[in-house]
Amino acid sequence: MSIDSVEMFMKVAIENGYEFDNVDEDEWVTYGYNIVRDSIEGNKSAKWIYYNQKDHRFSLAFSRTNIISNFLGTDADNSENPYDLIVKDIKEKCKYYKILNYKGTAYVTYSCSESSYKGKIGFVIEEGWGYIRHFPEEEPKP
C-alpha cells in the first residue's frame, strides 16, 4: 500500500529480499526473488514484481505451486503463499470496487483508502500464478 513511485517500489523490493533483474524497453523495472539466471531460456523465479516508470503502475506475480505438490500431483496448502497473504490483507483493509478487465483477464478490484498509490488494486489467479495489479486512476476525459 506504500508504493507510489519507482523509489518506493525499489525500497519495498529490496527490503523484502528481492534482487534487481532488469529495466526493459517499455520502462518496466523488474525484481525477482532468488532468481535463477539463464541467458538462454530467460531468468526464473517463483516471485516477480514489476513497476512501469511511464504510467506509474505496478504488478506482482507469485507462483502458487511448489515442487513437492508438482512431484506428488497433489494440491498444496497455499495459505502461507505471499499472494494469499496480500489478498487477505486487501480484503480486510479495502473496499470492493468492481471487476475490471485487463488484456482479456477479469480482476476483482478494491479501493484502499489508506494506500499511497492512486487508483485500484486488483487480483486474480491464472495458470498457477497469483497476480496482483495496480490499476491507476483513469485520466479525466476533456
Domains counted in the coordinates: how many?
A: 1
Number of strands: 8
| Helix content estimate | 10-25%
- Average pLDDT confidence is 87
Strand adjacency order, main sheet: 1-2-3-4-8-7-6-5
Largest sheet: 8 strands, antiparallel
- Helical segment tally? 3
Query: What is the general shape?
Result: globular
Distinctive features:
alpha+beta, 3 helices, globular
Architecture overview:
Helices cover 20% and strands 38% of the residues. By secondary structure, the protein is an alpha+beta fold. The longest helix is centred in the middle third of the chain and has 12 residues. β3 and β4 form a beta hairpin. About 5% of the residues have low confidence. It is globular, with a radius of gyration of 16 Å. It has one domain. An 8-stranded antiparallel beta sheet has the order 1-2-3-4-8-7-6-5, with helices on one face. The relative contact order is 0.16.
